[in-house]
Every structure is written in structure tokens, then in C-alpha cells.
Design goal:
- The protein contains three helices and 27 strands.
- By secondary structure, it is of the alpha/beta class.
- It folds into two domains: 115 residues, no CATH class; 270 residues, no CATH class.
- The protein has a 22-stranded parallel β-sheet that branches. Strands 1, 2, 3, 4 and 27 form a five-stranded antiparallel β-sheet that branches.
- Helix 2 runs antiparallel to helix 3.
């Protein structure tokens, strides 16, 4: 038997101290729990990130869908869209909530919001003691949240026909009008509209109620447009008339006085008042270089087959005023041509024809654009009138391409035609506008 000596033990100890074999294995064994924990946390965080991005995409799409729906079923539609992304409300610890009274960044609480909550299980991180903040199917889990907020953008659409619908009747009606052409002229009804035979070729057909067939772009449910021109009535001068001569309707009726029969050139300035009917007995040219306001009290403007026109460089506003009742007619009548350029400045800027909004009788216009022909630059305001448009409306001989009509209701026949209205700014007229909901837009 070999004898173990002190020298032998000493040599073995030195050899063991200098031998490095197996060090890596030892260190790996010591660090393995920490390495597994770090890998576990990395895996969990990556999983959370991917899941949360999917949740955010689902919330964004669901919110847009809810706002686009805009009706009672908005929440159902939001949840259906979220489900397409794999987040089904009430399944696998997923909750989807949609509201239409969310706070908007710019103020108010009319925005749409969808929030998604999901519990994701933890797989590796519990090994190092991280157990999340919730239980997912009786196991440690992490709660993730995503939310989105959307609101509607709006578009202001200028309209050249505004039917106020003060009597509650259907505002815009067309009957068999395949040749009607309202290119450049959008129409708005404060109640509802119905176009038979053609869409009028109007860029927008808008209605507060139901729009049926009017306009290339047809929109229902548009907010009503308030009367933008009623306040101009305060500028109508006082009525100084003592009597109101009317055109004779029977053989024994007296004829109109000479002051109520016009022909040739009429030089006007400021406010000019005519009491009763004004009848043309020849073509009339209005010479009003500084602009004029012709106020017809309790009477019509009977063109009587002649041309009533503003001279080049002149401007005119014709105002129909007076009292309700009787047989008074407060409107243009007769054949011929009505060729008027409205003023481009002052209180009557852009206004060609104006019916006092206090008048409710004798205001209907039965053959607009036809009897007489309308060549008008500016506004025709007849807020209580029922209008039948059966001819073409063109710009005046000396004015811009601008025509706007505000009335109670209108019926458009087959030949109804309104010229382009792109010149209203230059004509001094601010067109009424309707607020059209645009596409929903994410704001948060």
C-alpha cells in the first residue's frame, strides 16, 4: 500500500487549484435561474407589446366604425369590428366598451370612444416571483388596456337653393326633370326633398329630413340652416304711401297713374318708393351708378313682356313690402326679361330681389325663370313663397355668375336650369352654407 505523505497531499492541492476544467458548468449552474428569469421577462414584455398593438388597432377601427354608424347600433358595430381583430367582448377575459358621450379634446362630450381590456396569462415570469396584477383563468395574468376617441369632421357646403320649410311642407320637389341642370349649385331643404327623373346634377343634395334622389352626393339628416337674410328687413324704408293703385282687372277699373308706368331709361339713386303695381310699357334701363333700392309697396313688378335691366356699371335691389291680405301681389310677374345686377357693397350687398319676411300672402312665384326670364346676379329672397321654377336662370348681362334663392318651398319642372354660381364672392354676396358631416377622425 502506498504511503500518503504530506508532500503528496501538497502537490495534489496545488494541482487542483490550478485546474480550470468545469468552471463554466459551475457558473452556468449558478446563473441559470437569473438567465431564465431575464428571458422570461423579455418574452412576457414582447408578448404584451404585440398584444397591446393588436388591441390598439382593434380599438381604432372599432371607434371609427361606431362614429360612422352614428345611430343606435353604434356599440354593436364597434364590438363586431373588435371581434374581427380577435377581441370578442366577454370571451377569454376580453371586455369591449363603446360610448358616444366621450369627452372631445376641443370640448364637449359628443365624441365616440371604444376601450378594450384584456387579461393575458403569464408563462415564465412567475418563476422569478412576478405574478402580474390580475388572474387570468385562475393563473397569474397581466391586464392590458387600449382606447381610442373619434369625432366627426364637418364640411361647409355653399348652397344656391335654400328651402326654409317654414310651413313644414316638403321643401324641394322635382317632377320629371331629366334636363334640369344645377351644375355648381347645391340645394338644401330644411325638411325633406324628393327628385323624380333626375338628381338635378347638383353637386350636393341636402335635407334635414330625408333626401330622396336630389344631388350627385345625397345627404339626409343635415342640420337645418337658419334664415341668414331676415335681418335685412330692418333696412326697408318707412311706408309713406297713401294708396296702392292696382292694374285694372275689369273694364271699369281705373288705369294705373303715369308714375306707375315705366319705359325708357330711369335714373335712380338711394331709396325709391313706388306705391302699388309697377308696370312696364316699354323696355326699361335702370341707370343707378351708385346703386339704388326700388321699394314696391303692395304691388307687383309687371314686366309686361318687356326687358327690365340695370345698365352697365349700375346696381339695383328690388324690395317688395307692404301689408298682408287683399289682392296684393308682391312678386315679379309678366313675360319679357328681368335682367338685374345687385349691388356689391352696402347693406343690400348681393341682394337683387327681396320680399319682406313679414309678408305671408301674395308672395308665391309661379313661373320663375320663364315669365319673365330671369337673368339675375345676386340673391332672390322669398322666405314665405312657394316657388315654381320652370325656366333657366342665367347671370345678368353686366354681372357675375352668382344666383342664390331662399324660399319656403320650391317645385322644379323639367327645364329648370341654374347657371354656375362661382362668382358670388365678387358679386358681394355671402352664400348660405349647410354643415355636412364628414368622415370620422381619430382624435386620441
Amino acid at each position: 500500500m502506498a504511503t500518503v505523505t504530506l508532500a503528496t497531499i501538497s502537490r495534489s492541492a496545488v494541482k487542483l487549484r490550478t485546474d480550470q476544467r468545469g468552471n463554466v458548468a459551475v457558473l452556468t449552474a449558478l446563473l441559470l435561474p437569473a438567465l431564465m428569469g431575464a428571458m422570461g421577462i423579455g418574452f412576457e414584455i414582447s408578448n404584451w407589446y404585440v398584444t397591446k398593438r393588436s388591441m390598439q388597432n382593434a380599438a381604432d377601427a372599432a371607434t371609427i366604425a361606431a362614429a360612422t354608424n352614428g345611430a343606435a347600433g353604434y356599440a354593436t358595430e364597434a364590438k363586431a369590428v373588435a371581434a374581427v381583430y380577435g377581441f370578442v367582448d366577454g370571451v377569454n377575459n376580453v371586455s369591449v366598451t363603446a360610448i358616444n358621450t366621450a369627452a372631445c379634446p376641443g370640448g364637449g362630450n359628443t365624441c365616440y370612444s371604444v376601450s378594450i381590456t384584456a387579461l393575458v396569462p403569464l408563462y415564465v415570469s412567475p418563476i422569478i416571483g412576478f405574478r402580474g396584477d390580475a388572474d387570468a383563468n385562475s393563473s397569474p395574468g397581466k391586464r392590458l388596456n387600449s382606447a381610442a376617441v373619434a369625432t366627426f369632421t364637418t364640411t361647409q357646403v355653399p348652397v344656391c337653393l335654400l328651402a326654409l320649410g317654414l310651413t313644414g311642407a316638403q321643401d324641394i320637389v322635382t317632377n320629371g326633370n331629366p334636363r334640369a341642370n344645377f351644375a355648381g349649385c347645391s340645394v338644401m331643404a330644411n325638411t325633406s326633398s324628393r327628385c323624380n327623373g333626375s338628381n338635378l346634377n347638383a353637386p350636393y343634395g341636402l335635407a334635414h329630413g330625408t333626401n330622396s334622389g336630389c344631388g350627385i352626393i345625397q345627404v339626409s339628416g343635415v342640420p337645418t340652416v337658419s334664415d341668414p337674410f331676415s335681418a335685412l328687413a330692418a333696412n326697408i324704408p318707412p311706408n309713406n304711401c297713401g294708396s296702392y293703385p292696382q292694374e285694372p282687372t275689369h273694364n271699369n277699373d281705373p288705369d294705373l297713374p303715369a308714375s306707375n308706368k315705366w319705359q325708357g331709361t330711369q335714373s335712380l339713386n338711394g331709396n325709391v318708393q313706388v306705391c302699388g303695381d309697377l308696370k312696364l310699357t316699354g323696355d326699361v334701363i335702370i341707370d343707378a351708378p351708385t346703386g339704388a333700392v326700388l321699394v314696391i309697396e303692395n304691388g307687383q313688378l309687371d314686366t309686361n313682356g318687356h326687358r327690365f335691366a340695370t345698365a352697365n356699371g349700375s346696381a339695383l335691389t328690388v324690395v317688395f313690402s307692404g301689408t298682408n291680405g287683399g289682392s296684393y301681389v308682391h312678386a315679379p310677374t309678366g313675360g319679357g326679361i328681368l335682367d338685374i345686377t345687385a349691388p356689391t357693397s352696402g347693406v343690400w350687398s348681393g341682394v337683387a330681389l327681396y320680399q319682406d319676411p313679414n309678408l305671408t300672402t301674395g308672395v308665391n312665384i309661379s313661373d320663375a325663370g320663364n315669365s319673365p326670364t330671369w337673368d339675375i346676379t345676386g340673391l332672390v329672397y322669398a322666405p314665405n313663397a312657394s316657388v315654381r321654377l320652370s325656366g333657366a336662370v342665367n347671370k345678368s348681362s353686366n354681372g357675375q355668375s352668382c344666383f342664390v334663392m331662399v324660399m319656403n318651398d320650391i317645385t322644379i319642372n323639367g327645364t329648370g336650369d341654374i347657371a354656375e354660381t362661382g362668382g358670388c364672392r365678387a358679386a358681394g354676396l355671402t352664400m348660405p352654407t349647410a354643415t355636412v358631416p364628414g368622415r370620422p377622425q381619430l382624435v386620441q
